[in-house]
Design brief:
The structure holds two protein chains of two kinds. Chain A is mainly beta. Chain A has eight helices and 53 strands. In chain A, the strands form eleven sheets. Chain A has a 22-stranded antiparallel barrel. The longest helix of chain A is centred in the N-terminal third of the chain and has 13 residues. Chain B contains 18 helices and six strands. In chain B, the strands form three sheets. Chain B has a two-stranded antiparallel ribbon with strand order 1-5. Chain B has a two-stranded antiparallel sheet with strand order 2-3. Chain B has a two-stranded antiparallel sheet with strand order 4-6. The longest helix of chain B is centred in the first third of the chain and has 22 residues. Classes of the chains: A mainly beta, B mainly alpha.
């Protein structure tokens, strides 16, 4: 997996080699384990830069100058060997190297360093591990593979975003995801939602599961991913990498013996289905008052059989004079078997499992073609990817086409250059998610089983006999089929990712390395809400949104590398550099409402109520940096870095900042006598600062258009009756010209132990990262006239442990059984906010629940109401049998896990390999908003048991002579010391205790899981040399999300309503489900 | 080694200077999306639209459930109907009052007030009516120390008594400002005044009615003086030309999705959350009130029914089209209210004839306004009071009917306990909202009131 990096570095080295050779030596390099030839081994003349690489047959040719007698043979994964040039033809056998301490990792700014020299932890994941995951989104493929990397999928629908957090959250309202760097150039990984500037709410709570833009990377192009978790590793990236960095190194061309071209073709088919849904009752039908389970105000059971069916009247059209009933959203009606068939009161209904029928089998086809080749002096790799995904929700899809060309050229002995250009077209069809009237899960799961969502009589079933109006249970939520087919969201991304490099070796101790890159894309989106859709509620006659996002990132850096050997024991290097970057983004939005031609013509010209807005933002940063390192023997390594950075988003008063870092690594085994057990041991310590930029334009206050809403309607906004309104608004944030960047001060210590020549490796890290000067959108008393001001006032600590264990338990005669474990425990605590502020809302959510930073609690905690309790912590139960809710909101839960663990194991023998990856996440809490609402609606399986009353444990509330509950002066219930004996009716129990009309506390559920994330069986076969065209093939079967064990009552608890673009975590409110899939793949190796 | 250092230093210095320079770019520092200036016209429009929203939103909707004009039957509104109101429920409203409405009116006064008395007067009236709404909802509120931005992040709460003085003096100043001649102005409100098209005379009438309203609110504190002052203020309103519902200060709406009447928008987006209240419907039925079919829509059975307080029956009537269609106006300060205030104040001061006349006029005006014409039978039964027959119960009961959709109805009930309402499960009916969560958290002076049943200063 690290071969390409090595080849690249070799390539650079060979560029500078001397041509003064005087003797030609040829030979073969083979593996001692199975005597197979080794491809790509480097053969170097010791003490010189002269090197060669073995070909497909393990053969090499090298010119050995007079006076040189020793060759050094190196190959990644094998132990290096030195051999005397005893003859002109040599055969060298290499042993497997399990230690791998001399492997080169790509660190910040693309600087390669040996693993043994690193004073901080960095973990590498091979490209094939990403491909094997079967994920379309490369970042999702990182799940459970690296300690301290939390991967959160928002849903199992095509193109849904994946969020990554390294070692916890570091800032409050800004970006908490790491910088994504591809071949040394940062790329955009934003997740944007489409909404008009007059949309008053957090658009992430609604809309579709948008993609995070790293989804555009073709997993098959990835050679390896290095995760730089802490500031020590990433500090050279300055204000862009406060949250760490994901360094992606892509595959490059290789020199092919004889100058030919080699090719691979792979194809896979992936079949997906829903992996987990909430459970439903199938017994009771629509309406309220059925089943005798609820009491009226006089304490008598309501009459059975009252139910309210949505009925648009004889014309079947809503909003016309003959409408009979709007229905009710609840399912507290009579037994379905007691509800007569509409139009025939002698027959009764049978339940229809709408939910089960709705989801489809999702199919993904992936094709990858790659060609590579080259001769001495240059090489190329050309790859083509096409992925076509059809989702588990009808009519959802995602497709990606990527064409990528990478070239490397050795211009002269001193100069090398190369570059990559990648064109990507991606996008698809998405369906509405979450809290909106078109939400698929909302319309689907709230509909009782007495109502057939496909019983509308129109051609498609979800429409009425007129074929253009929808058939629906409840007046206010779209039929999910209608949403899927009539309200599509399409996105179409055209993206160019390109980079070039230039390297020049001035003198032996000084070389120059320049790099530039551009990431440019347009994302064209169109959202249609057909005529007759409920969403948006204020436009019943249809809506079209056209949204174009343009993003341009330009990056360039220049590195001056100096190297000096002070003595045999001491050597050191200094890199001086500078970089410039610019980010530009533009969002153009146009909306039309009220179609003139009701159906079939989805163009803005067909609408009468038009609205547009635009916004753009540009930021620039520039920096100079220094990286100095010194090594003593192979034992003691020290590195010092410093970066001084200017950013256009810093305030006026301080326009530049400096971030230092230092780390040391001590290989203590160098001082120990050779021993068979401990082959390598290193302790390390690092300190570093990294920064996080203030938000763009936060240094000044401007006027904006207010939006007036109470949260229940879309409200009033401008232009209003032909008048514009720009002034102050509660959406305004008071600017602050004195803003500084946030700083992360990170300390980490670690130990790296490798036993029995690498058969067992243990790497442990403890870190403590404190973010200071966190910029708050500091909430201020709105009676001051403003709701927020920017302020550098927050402080937050992340500390934790990371453990990585890799082992080859069995390694005999080609049979290998390896087990790898990674474990991470991160503890986050918000330690300071602005003076007198004890909590802040991180991102607007619902009125009942917020994601908050609360002093003394973890970042992103759930904030909402809890039950009143007595001094002993007992619930205080009123005479109605229900606990009493405290109206004041408080901390009620933490969405982030106590620990995460991934356990991977692989059995391999002669090309056959069986691997499994277990993923354990413990202690993450989820707001089970869906299930709470389904309880309240009487749709959940739990609520089926409704023919009885429920007793809730607690103490009884005091009652007065009339039997009315007694309250204290502060509104809290007066508690007694006697145990509660009152019982709640089933309806009250599921509405006010287990429903979402209860205290929020009750709706927070444990989302811990144990899952078999990946299971795969693959076979690799090399064909005999004499076969033309084909070199070999791979066949693989795998499954993703094979099983999931969790107590969580809703969908897969790895879910996110708000997606990767949001700092809200753990919200589940009618989220799309996740998926399980089975994958079959073949790969052909062609000559 | 020295050479090495020199070689390393030179590019460093070069880069340092170029780094600084690189940041000087268009759109890097100055926000290209939002301006740093605004206009008097836009601020006035903002003040009005904010007022529409304040008076049509939860600050009226929730009290209307508590006064049993309406019933909260689903989700959060079923909670309100059980008298469960958390500190976060009315957060949007509190924020909207201070940082959408008040702050912009202050900006209008500070930046454009000098030399523009008409704009000043309008801004002050908008402030007075919204401050009135705020204090009648929460009691003590920040005012004299409010709206100072980061200068004062913990504004003290003025007592409700002080706030009432503030309202009266703002209105007095407004009347003076609006009485200035046109020549005293450099900027003239016109289409930006959505309600009156920039006519200062209309605003003066509103100011007098508001003066009467807030004076009359002190009926328990000072029955006699409040009656006299209210009548005086109304006399000034009438002599300023207040003569019919054509003078009403109503909210204005359009058919576009962002201009909708918010009762309509709410009922449209949140079906079944609120229904007609049984108390109001049954009261109107008992007197064969012709307005009922305008107030309420037919239920599933073609009848007009309301939901019992605290019940969640949703088979009852929705609000009718008169108040709940896309472009319905919503009454905020009306001639009918003025006549009812007159009736109540005159009754209190012993002018029973005046009280009966005002009472009869108010009802007739409202019947004509809502139903489009007079209703002789109804008026004979309900609007033919004399000095001998008029009672406070009759006045306040009819005002209760007429003030449908308005927060004022809650204040009237709290002051007079008319009509006699029974709370859910026989208990009390809330008399205020609990303190806003944002204030509890961010303003050390917040009273952190959690008791919904605590009486207002004017209610004690």
């Amino acid at each position: 997996m690290k071969r390409t990096i090595l080849i690249l570095s070799v390539f650079v080295l060979t560029a500078f080699q001397s041509l003064m050779a005087q003797k030609t030596v040829t030979g073969t390099v083979t593996s001692n384990e199975d005597s197979e030839p080794l491809v790509g081994a480097t053969v170097m003349v010791k003490g010189t830069d002269i090197a060669s690489v073995t070909d497909a047959d393990g053969k090499f040719t090298i010119n050995v100058p007079a006076g040189s007698t020793t060759l050094v043979i190196k190959l990644l994964g094998m132990e290096a060997k030195e051999v005397e040039v005893a003859s002109d033809v040599l055969t060298v056998g290499l042993d497997q190297d399990l230690l791998q301490i001399d492997d080169v990792l790509i660190t910040a700014l693309g600087i390669p360093r040996e693993e043994r020299a690193l004073g901080y932890s960095a973990q590498e994941i091979g490209g094939e591990d990403i491909v094997n995951s079967g994920e379309v989104n490369a970042l999702q493929g990182l799940a459970a593979k690296s300690a301290g990397v939390q991967v959160i999928s928002s849903a199992g629908t095509p193109g849904a975003s994946t969020k990554i957090v390294l070692r916890g959250n570091h800032t409050f309202t800004g970006q908490n995801q790491p910088l994504i760097v591809v071949d040394g150039v940062p790329i955009d990984n934003s997740t944007d939602n489409t909404a008009g500037g007059d949309y008053p709410f957090n658009e992430r709570l609604t809309g579709v599961n948008n993609s995070n833009r790293a989804i555009d990377i073709n997993p098959d192009d990835i050679e390896s991913i290095t995760v730089l978790k802490g500031p020590a590793a990433a500090s050279l990236y300055g204000v862009r990498a406060g949250n760490g960095a994901i360094i992606i190194t892509t595959k490059r061309g290789k020199v092919v013996d004889g100058g030919g071209i080699k090719a691979t073709y792979s194809y896979s088919i992936d079949v997906a289905s829903v992996n987990k849904l909430p459970e439903f009752q199938h017994t009771y039908g629509q309406g309220v008052g059925g089943g005798g389970q609820s009491l009226d105000n006089d304490g008598n059971p309501e009459d059975e059989g009252i139910f309210d069916e949505a009925d648009a009247g004889p014309d079947n059209l809503w909003g016309t004079a003959d409408d009979v009933s709007a229905g009710t959203s609840r399912t507290w009606g009579p037994l379905i078997s007691n509800i007569p068939v509409k139009g025939d009161s002698t027959k009764f209904r049978t339940p229809v499992d709408n939910v089960d029928r709705f989801f489809e089998t999702g199919i993904t086809h992936t094709h990858n073609v790659s060609l590579y080749g080259g001769k001495e002096g240059g090489s190329f790799r050309l790859s083509f990817n096409r992925t076509d995904q059809e989702g588990i929700v009808p009519n959802t899809k995602y497709a990606r086409t990527s064409v990528r060309l990478t070239t490397d050229a050795k211009i002269s002995e001193k100069m090398a250059m190369g570059g990559t250009v990648d064109y990507i077209n991606s996008g698809g069809n998405k369906a509405q998610n979450g809290s909106n009237l078109s939400g698929v899960m909302l319309g689907l799961t709230r509909t009782p089983d007495s109502f057939d969502l496909l019983g509308g009589g129109g051609e498609d079933g979800y429409t009425l006999p007129n074929d253009v109006s929808q058939h629906q249970y409840f007046l206010f939520y779209d039929n999910p089929y209608w949403t899927a087919y009539q309200n599509p969201f399409t996105d179409n991304i055209n993206r160019i990712l390109g980079n070039i490099y230039w390297k020049y070796k001035v003198v032996k101790w000084f070389d120059v390395d320049a790099k530039a890159g551009v990431d440019y894309y347009t994302d064209q989106r169109k959202q249609i809400y057909a005529y007759g859709s409920w969403e948006p509620a204020n436009s019943p006659n249809g809506q079209i949104e056209e949204n174009t996002l343009t993003s341009r990132d330009v990056y360039g850096d220049l590195l001056l590398n100096f190297h000096h050997d002070f003595s045999d024991d001491f050597n050191g290097g200094v890199t001086l550099g500078g970089n410039l970057s610019e980010s530009f983004g533009k969002n153009a939005y146009a909306r039309g409402r009220d179609f003139s031609i009701p159906y079939g013509f989805n163009n803005l010209s067909n609408t009468t109520d038009l609205y547009t807005d635009e916004s753009h933002a540009k930021t620039r940063t520039s920096a100079i940096f220094l990286d100095a390192n010194i090594a003593y023997k192979s034992m003691l390594y020290a590195q010092f870095t410093s970066r001084t950075e200017w950013s256009s988003t810093f305030g006026e008063t301080q326009n530049h900042f400096t971030y230092p870092s230092a780390n040391v690594a001590f290989v203590f085994t160098e001082l120990m006598p050779e021993n068979k057990v401990l082959s390598f041991g290193k302790v390390r310590y690092a300190f570093a600062q990294a920064g996080i930029s203030p938000p763009v334009y936060s240094s000044s206050t401007t006027f904006i258009s207010p939006i007036f809403t109470d949260g229940f309607t879309d409200g009033l906004s401008f232009p209003y009756l032909g008048q514009n309104g720009i002034g102050n608004s509660q959406l305004n944030i008071l600017g602050n010209p004195n803003l500084k960047p946030e700083r992360i001060n990170g300390h980490e210590v670690g130990v790296d132990l490798r036993f029995w020549k690498g058969r067992l490796n243990i790497d442990y890290t403890y870190y403590n990262q404190t973010t200071v000067d966190i910029i708050l959108e500091q909430p201020i008393s709105t009676s001051s006239g403003y709701r927020f001001t920017y302020n550098n006032a927050g402080e937050m600590v992340n500390k934790g442990h990371e453990l990585v264990v890799t082992s080859d338990l069995v390694r005999v005669k080609g049979f290998v059984w390896s087990v790898n474990l990674n474990f991470a425990k991160n503890e986050n605590e918000v330690t300071a906010l602005a003076p007198s502020v004890t909590q802040i809302d991180l991102e607007t959510a619902f009125s009942s629940i917020g994601a908050f930073a609360i002093i003394g609690e973890p970042y992103g905690s759930f904030f909402g109401t809890a039950w009143y309790r007595d001094d002993n912590g007992n619930l205080i139960i009123g005479p109605d049998g229900l606990p009493v809710e405290n109206p004041a909101s408080t901390f009620v839960g933490n969405p982030y896990p106590d620990y995460t663990m991934g356990i991977g194991t692989e059995l391999s023998y002669k090309g056959v390999s069986l691997r499994a990856l277990f993923d354990i996440t413990q202690g993450n809490e989820v707001w089970a908003g869906t299930v709470a609402r389904l309880n309240l609606l009487g749709r959940s399986a739990d609520s089926e048991d409704r023919g009885r009353n429920y007793h809730i444990e607690g103490v009884a509330q005091e009652v007065d002579g009339n039997g009315d509950p007694v309250f204290n002066a502060d509104g809290s219930p007066a508690a007694t010391t006697t145990a509660n004996t009152s019982e709640a009716t089933a309806f009250d129990y599921f509405s006010f205790y287990e429903g979402d009309a209860a205290a929020l506390e009750q709706q927070i559920k444990d989302g811990s899981w144990f899952r078999l994330r990946e299971l795969g069986l693959s076979y690799h076969h090399d064909l005999p040399k004499k076969v033309k065209f084909f070199r070999g093939f791979d066949v693989s079967f795998s499954s993703r999300n094979v099983f999931l064990i969790t107590d969580y009552p809703g969908v897969d608890p790895e879910t996110s309503l708000t997606g990767a673009g949001s700092n809200v975590g753990g919200f589940d409110y009618f989220n799309m489900p996740n998926s399980r899939s089975y994958n079959f793949g073949i790969k052909l190796y062609l000559n | 080694m020295k050479k090495l250092i020199v070689i390393m230093l030179l590019p460093t210095m070069l880069m340092w200077s170029s780094c600084e320079k690189y940041l000087e770019c268009d759109d890097c520092k100055t926000d290209p999306n939002n301006p740093s200036v605004t206009t008097a016209a836009m601020l006035l429009t903002i003040g009005q639209v904010a007022t529409f929203s304040n008076f049509e939103g939860n600050l009226s909707r929730v009290p209307q459930i508590w006064t049993q004009h309406l019933a909260g039957t689903d989700f959060q509104y079923y909670e309100f109907a059980q008298y469960n109101q958390t500190d976060n429920d009315l957060e949007n409203e509190w924020n909207q009052l201070y940082s959408d409405c008040f702050i912009n009116m202050k900006l209008l006064l500070d930046d454009f007030g000098a030399g523009n008395p008409w704009y000043s007067g309008m801004a002050k009236i908008i402030l007075a009516m919204n401050i009135g709404l705020t204090t009648d909802t929460w009691g003590d509120i920040p005012w004299s120390q409010a709206l100072q931005g980061t200068e004062n992040l913990n504004p003290a709460y003025d007592s409700q008594e002080q706030v009432y003085q503030t309202i009266q003096s703002l209105l007095d100043e407004a009347i003076t400002d609006l009485g200035q001649p046109a020549e005293a102005n450099t900027l003239f409100p016109s289409t930006d005044d959505l309600v009156y098209g920039g006519d200062p005379a209309q605003w003066i009438k509103v100011a007098w009615v508001l003066k009467a309203r807030y004076t009359n609110h002190l009926s328990k504190r000072n029955p006699a003086a409040s009656a006299t002052e209210a009548v005086n203020a109304l006399n000034s309103a009438f002599s300023a030309g207040l003569s019919s519902s054509a003078d009403d200060f109503n909210s204005m709406h359009g058919a576009a999705g962002n201009e909708l009447n918010q009762w309509y928008a709410f009922n449209n987006e949140r079906g079944n959350y609120i229904k007609m209240g049984e108390t109001l419907v049954e009261l109107m039925k008992s007197i064969s009130d012709p307005r009922l079919r305008f107030y309420a829509a037919e239920d599933d059975n073609g009848d007009y029914t309301g939901t019992e307080p605290g019940d969640n029956t949703t088979t009852t009537s929705n609000m009718g089209d008169y108040f709940s269609s896309p472009t319905s106006i919503a009454p905020i300060v009306t001639f009918v209210e003025a006549k009812f205030i007159e009736a109540e104040a005159k009754f209190r001061s012993g002018d029973l004839t005046g009280a009966a006349n005002a009472h009869n006029a108010a009802i007739k005006e409202h019947i004509a306004l809502i139903t489009g014409g007079p209703d002789a039978a109804f008026e004979a039964a309900e609007a033919s009071e004399t000095a001998g027959t008029i009672t406070l119960t009759k006045i306040m009961t009819h005002k209760y009917i007429a003030m449908f959709t308005q927060a004022e109805a809650w204040t009237d009930w709290r002051r007079t306990d008319i009509p006699n309402l029974t709370g859910v499960n026989g208990g009390d009916i809330p008399r205020r909202f609990v303190s806003s969560q944002g204030e509890n958290v961010n303003n050390s002076n917040s009273p952190k009131e959690t008791n919904l049943f605590k009486k207002m200063w004017w209610d004690e």
